[in-house]
Design brief:
175 residues, disordered N terminus, 8 strands
């Protein structure tokens, strides 16, 4: 019995040596994956209310310290560490009539948060996919505009990731 226990422990130890911890950086890294959009319409009138744009990025982080709880997002002391932004940075680029791109952080997109991505709170490498939704409202004077986005995320140690740029989408906007 003692020999079989030793063999099992040795076998399990050898298997655990095969599972390598990913060698991610302490600074989060993201890659652009996709951008999708779909309209939300009024069921009674069929009138378009808003265009929902979903930006998908993949991420990896060595410590897994990404996100904030609902309680933290309502805590002024916690939010003060992040300044006037959340843990997402979304820059909107709008194509102008002359073909140039106007680049700015819109007030509706200035403070955006992702939920805690490792609820157990234990440090360790993490990778996955994030979907960020932004809405563009249809109004009486909106016109179709071309937009694209630049995205970064920030971990709880306040490290900014690299910045990625999306493809172009057509959404309601103003000139």
């Amino acid at each position: 019995m003692k020999l079989s226990t030793t063999i099992i422990v040795a076998f399990c130890t050898s298997l655990s040596g095969c599972l390598q911890t990913p060698d991610f950086d302490s600074v989060p890294r993201i890659e652009y994956a996709a951008i999708d959009q779909f309209p939300e319409t009024d069921p009674a009138t069929k009138k378009k209310l808003r265009e929902k744009v979903v930006i998908t990025v993949t991420f990896e982080d060595k410590e897994g310290d990404l996100g904030a709880t609902a309680d933290e997002r309502s805590d002024d002391d916690f939010k003060a560490r992040y300044g006037k932004t959340g843990n997402y940075e979304l820059v909107t680029l709008t194509k102008q009539l002359n073909g140039s791109w106007d680049e700015r952080i819109l007030s509706v997109d200035s403070v955006m948060w992702m939920p805690i991505l490792k609820p157990d709170g234990k440090p360790g490498a993490i990778k996955g996919k994030l979907d960020l939704q932004v809405d563009r409202i249809y109004g009486n004077t909106t016109v179709d505009v071309e937009q694209k986005f630049k995205v970064r995320i920030r971990d709880r140690a306040l490290h900014y990731s690299n910045q990625v740029e999306t493809d172009v989408v057509t959404v309601p906007g103003y000139r």
